[in-house]
């Protein structure tokens, strides 16, 4: 059985973060493992409190897994603060993981800063070079490039800049564009384009986490990056189409239907 690890934050309401990642791994027939970087108290209406896990405990979790179990795919999600990023980068150097998907989580849909803004530069400098692919949405790409992104040519320019920052491939997600939603993948040579029809629902909590862990799953299963992204796009579209009316706010995507 293939094995995948998520290094990310816990979402108490089960829609995003570690919980979404583990559900996604399971739905792909993959054995899921987790290194928790922060615990959030949140539900479908917002994030109410965050407690960071100590750098010693993050390092101990990473060591415990890599010293014992082969990791076929690794996803990095919410990393919260500078010291967490530093210890993740230092710890992973010992193990040279393959198939690393970096979701540069910054702000939740409800507006909570899941990454301390002071840590943005450290995330770029320390984690991008580890990434097989980095998966920013437009607001995250705007933070990374300090440019405004409103259309496809600007997305292409931003993807080139982000790749120069060290990631091997860049999947820039266009869901925040006003018109068509299109994602682009840049590998340093050319672009792949992934168009998808917009699904009308308010229940989109955890979509970014789910997409990145679906890409991780498909890489762990041995698909090429292009195939892994295509399959993950199909997976997230279905998960949104079947999203759940749970809670009073933004409900979660659904993995088993
Ligand atoms: N909570 C955690 C722990 C996350 O990792 C994320 C996203 O990556 C979120 C919440 C945000 O979820 P959303 O913005 O989809 O509501």
TrEMBL record:
Catalytic activities: 4-amino-5-hydroxymethyl-2-methylpyrimidine + ATP = 4-amino-2-methyl-5-(phosphooxymethyl)pyrimidine + ADP + H(+); 4-amino-2-methyl-5-(phosphooxymethyl)pyrimidine + ATP = 4-amino-2-methyl-5-(diphosphooxymethyl)pyrimidine + ADP
SUPFAM superfamilies on file: Ribokinase-like
Pathway in which the depicted protein is active: Cofactor biosynthesis; thiamine diphosphate biosynthesis; 4-amino-2-methyl-5-diphosphomethylpyrimidine from 5-amino-1-(5-phospho-D-ribosyl)imidazole: step 2/3; Cofactor biosynthesis; thiamine diphosphate biosynthesis; 4-amino-2-methyl-5-diphosphomethylpyrimidine from 5-amino-1-(5-phospho-D-ribosyl)imidazole: step 3/3
GO biological process: thiamine biosynthetic process
A molecular function (GO) term: hydroxymethylpyrimidine kinase activity
Sequence ranges assigned to domain Pyridoxamine kinase/Phosphomethylpyrimidine kinase in this UniProt record: 11-254
Assigned EC number: 2.7.1.49, 2.7.4.7
Matching Gene3D superfamilies: 3.40.1190.20
Top-level EC class as recorded in UniProt: transferase
One Pfam family recorded for the sequence: Phos_pyr_kin
A GO cellular-component term linked to this record: cytosol
Keywords, in A-Z order: ATP-binding, Kinase, Nucleotide-binding, Thiamine biosynthesis, Transferase
InterPro entries named in the record: HMP/HMP-P_kinase_dom (IPR004399), PM/HMP-P_kinase-1 (IPR013749), Ribokinase-like (IPR029056)
Protein family: Belongs to the ThiD family.
Protein name (database record): Hydroxymethylpyrimidine/phosphomethylpyrimidine kinase
Organism, scientific name: Desulfosporosinus acididurans
Designated gene of the protein: thiD
């Amino acid at each position: 059985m293939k094995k995948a690890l998520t290094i990310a934050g816990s979402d108490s309401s089960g829609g995003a973060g570690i919980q979404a990642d583990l559900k996604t791994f399971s739905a792909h027939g993959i054995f899921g493992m987790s290194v928790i970087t922060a615990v959030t108290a949140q539900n479908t209406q917002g994030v109410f409190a965050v407690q960071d896990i100590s750098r010693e405990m993050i390092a101990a979790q990473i060591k415990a897994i890599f010293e014992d179990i082969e990791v076929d795919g690794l996803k990095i999600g919410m990393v919260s603060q500078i010291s967490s990023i530093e210890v993740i980068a230092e710890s992973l150097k010992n193990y040279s993981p393959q198939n690393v998907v970096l979701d540069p989580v910054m702000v939740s849909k409800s507006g909570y800063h899941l990454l301390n803004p002071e840590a943005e530069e450290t995330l770029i400098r320390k984690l991008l070079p580890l990434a097989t692919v980095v998966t920013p949405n437009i607001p995250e790409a705007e933070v990374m490039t300090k440019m405004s992104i409103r259309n496809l040519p600007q997305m292409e320019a931003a993807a080139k800049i982000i790749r120069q920052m060290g990631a091997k491939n860049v999947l820039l997600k266009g869901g925040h564009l006003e018109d068509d939603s299109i994602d682009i993948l840049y590998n340093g040579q050319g672009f792949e384009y992934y168009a998808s029809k917009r699904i009308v629902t308010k229940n989109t909590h955890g979509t970014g986490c789910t997409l990145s862990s679906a890409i991780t799953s498909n890489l762990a299963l041995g698909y090429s990056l292009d195939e892994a992204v295509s399959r993950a796009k199909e997976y997230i579209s279905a998960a949104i189409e079947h999203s759940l009316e749970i809670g009073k706010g933004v409900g979660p995507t659904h993995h088993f239907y």
